[in-house]
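Obj.: predict assembly geometry.
Materials: sequence records (below).
Method: joint structure prediction, all chains together.
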Amino acid sequence: MNKKQVERWSPFLLLIAIVVVWEVITSGFGVSEFIFPSPSRIWEQTLEHKATILGHAWRTYWVTMAGFGIAIVVGVLLGFLIGSSRLAYASVYPLMTAFNALPKAAFVPILVVWFGIGAGPAILTAFLISFFPIMVNIATGLATLEPELEDVLRVLGAKRWDVLTKVGLPRSMPYFFGSLKVAITLAFVGTTVSEMTASNEGIGYLLISAGSSMQMGLAFSGLLVVGAMAMAMYELFSFIEKHTTGWAHRR
Amino acid sequence: MPEATPTPAASDKPFVEFDQVWLAYNDELLAQDVFAVEDINLQVKQGEFIAIVGPSGCGKSTFMKLTTGLKMPSMGKILIDGQQVTGPLKISGMAFQAPSLLPWRTTLDNVLLPLEIVEPYRSQFKDRRKEFAERASRLLASVGLGGMEKKFPWELSGGMQQRASICRALIHEPKMLLLDEPFGALDAFTREELWCTLRDLWEAQRFNVILVTHDLRESVFLADTVYCMSKSPGRFVVKREIQIPRTRDLEVTYTKDFSDIVHELRGHIGALRRPCRPVNGATP
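Observations (raw structure tokens):
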């Protein structure tokens, strides 16, 4: 294997190493399955409850994607607004920062009152937790135009709209795709957290019910599935980013 | 304030005319009588190449903004081609020290950008794109960038990027080209090459050029008239006509006449910077 191949496979090699060490420690020291299950036990339980896990995983997946979809729309619109208007930036940004500092899990009880138990609160929690990075990145891309370039265009009679569409938006695309990678992982956090208290379906619900019935292996496989889904989506957006805004990653 | 007198002899009429122009950046500064540029009087003939030299922060860039109509004077008036400037002037093209090309566009598309914005090209852009692209290619070829149309900016050297940037400033055939220290970030050899490129473009098309620079050799080599600007308040202190015959070859920069002019201008700048310096002979 040459250096490049090693680099490409390194995450998998590291994962294998961690699993091996984990297995050795748990079986070597005879750690109880109810405290910390070994990877082999988790795998057994995953296969055993395959159908259940798959059902919950699908639920978590589509709920997350729905929330994430709303987050993209709202994040882009708000980002566009505050990135293109100084007044909007000055007024909206501080409030948004304060809002972002609130723990989104704290919204779940309120959302339950409004929408009841089910997909509603989970979708909205996923949205609330993930729109902020998208908004900030779009706004940053728009607000950091070179003043010289703006002069070059303004002297030609370019309107604000021209500058935004010809320069601002394309320029903020790398920021946008970069933020999607971060936002999708956050969205999974939002969904799972919400499902833990306000749903009878989804991986969050699975975690709680597995925990309360002391099925630690099942609980861990729930975590595994969320992690795998988030990573897969991260890689997907990373791929899209590389193939749409290659100019920003030229080296 | 004197009225602009419409004279029948159009050729004698100055193309750019500054009449006692003062600019404060905002009302507060205006109230305190703090001006970025003061009492600028200037008359530039059609097709004249002028250079403005001076220390950093003396208001050279402010002067450019005034000329293009991006800033309005606080007092006085500016006439371009006989018309008072009231807003951004589409007949001007600008280039700066940073090439500021758009990295997601090819060189050709970067050069075409102004045509997507300025009328009348804007509304014809879709139909006449091919023709415009050919025009851009010709312009690129004339500055030595033939065959680079499909390259992205990061694939070009600094000098090539700056050439492309100048092409972008010229694609809509402006009557006036404004350059703000365009060669300041280039190495000495590339810079001299680009002097010649600019000289050839200007001699072929004879648009007006206003070159802002702090390179005295550059200003003397390229310009018909050099203006020295003083620092805070920014005002013109010396106007020097450069009589060196055209077409000027780079060789001319090594002649005595040339260095005498540069030296003379340097004297003005030095005197501006250290007004209290003891006089110790003009030439060492």
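Conclusions so far: The radius of gyration of chain B is 20 Å.
To do: check interface contacts against the pulldown list.
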